[in-house]
Amino acid sequence: MIQEKLLSICPAAVFEENTQWPTMNIDSAEWRKLAEALKNENDLAFDYLFCVTCVDWKTHLTMVYHLSSTLHRHTIVVKAKIADRNNAIIDSVYNIWATAELNEREAYDLFGVHFTNHPDLRRLFLSEDWVGFPLRKDYEDPINMIKL
Amino acid sequence: MFQEVGTTEMGDLIINVGPQHPSTHGVLHLVITLNGETVKKVEPHLGYIHRSIEKMCESLTYRQFIYVTSRMDYLSSHINNHACALIVEKGLQIEVPQRAQYIRVLLDELTRIASHQLWWGAMAMDVGAITPFFHAFREREVINDIMEQTCGARLTMNFMVPGGCMYDIHPDFVKSVKDFMAFFRSKLSEYDEMVTNNPIFQARMKDVGVISKENAISYGCSGPVARAAGVVCDVRKLSPYDVYSQVNFEEALETEGDCFARYKVRMKEMNESMRIIDQLIDNIPEGDFQAKTKAVLKLPKGDYYTNVETARGDFGVYIVSEGATTPYRIKFRSPGFCNLSALDHMTRGSKIGDLVAIMGSLDLVIPDIDR
User: Fold this and answer.
1) Which among B202, B204, B327, B333 has most CB atoms closer than 10 A?
2) Pick among 3.40.30.10, 3.30.460.80, 1.20.120.1730, 2.60.120.1440: CATH of A2-83
3) What is the pTM of this model?
4) In A, which residues are within 8 Å of B341 by CB distance?
5) B241: closest CA among B81, B110, B77, B75?
């Protein structure tokens, strides 16, 4: 039911099978439009963005958003594919879910994802002159060893 | 990173609080913009204890990665370990023996009480009362002794493993817990006499740092911070794990969303934790404390997400597995990080003196935020 509704908003979305929660794969360009619908449509009402993260697939990046609704108690996972790893851009959703502001800064800091329209996109944990994005798979740093 | 102390063009004063400051309870650095005594903006600077635990975990096996999670929210280390054990068990469909489930829930609840005791002492100290801190530590010491007796550690436990517990409980465990319960029950009413009913304390807490229900959800708040604003969000109720579905307890809820509501929620939670322990302590079933598992664990290819209720809120573990012995990507959703993001919203417009009370009521643990 919810799947049909989401496909009407994002016809190009691909749903994964055998997952814990409905998981939809979209292109990063469609994220902002989908996000607004997820929050504002009454029968969706995903108001609680509880996990924002990024996965580096070596050829591309994927932003993973875990959302649930405190009203309907349903959960959804949205995976937005960012095809260009060297110029990773996706829309910010800080004005839809306030928690995104800090979480997006974390993803920028550790993965180098640029969020358009983010009000304050700076490094969060690392110092401003840090080179590289440590959670990417090709990151090497012989001095500050994080790979064990 | 440090901003100079000074005034802006608007005549606002900018000051730094932390990273070394008693009220930040760790290495948190806040840059505060003040107009007179009124807070205009609070900006957290993080990373002083960032160890990149998520990256480390990518080269640790599914048995090893649990040990670093004790070092995130060190006051809920049992519960962090529990989440990691649960996600591996979910991925491999391991059936956990009843005995292990009972022990794990008992230890979780003892951890919650110990964490709230420390917060209670620190909270009172933050608003100027020194004595409660020593009372809280005296009572917490008893729980620490039980932990030491059970798993040999007092802070970073590493006791829960995929399949159950690492060891069986100490033969004196049941007696020690019962002794503690009798001892602590009388102390809780003392807590109320000493702090809760104190008019000066209430004046410092009421109508301070208010957050509405909608904003609490939008900022991703969880745990006592969200429940104080009326958000039903207790993971133990919403998606019960282990034997939480078999025990009776109430979710502590308040509606005001101010510091005092958060205080009341945590005080209620201590009572509810004791209720859970009462129901379980006499009925720990006989049997194995650990399921038989393979020597090398490999999670099948796919995504996994598990969350638990720590003393601070909704703690989630997200694993992307490629079928190897180590996770491809692991993400820890920490409750403190999201609760901290609401700090700026809560403090805007209040006085600088209230900032410390608000931070205390958020119960921040910095290694949990930085990870």
Assistant:
1) B327
2) 3.30.460.80
3) 0.89
4) 98-99, 101-103
5) B81
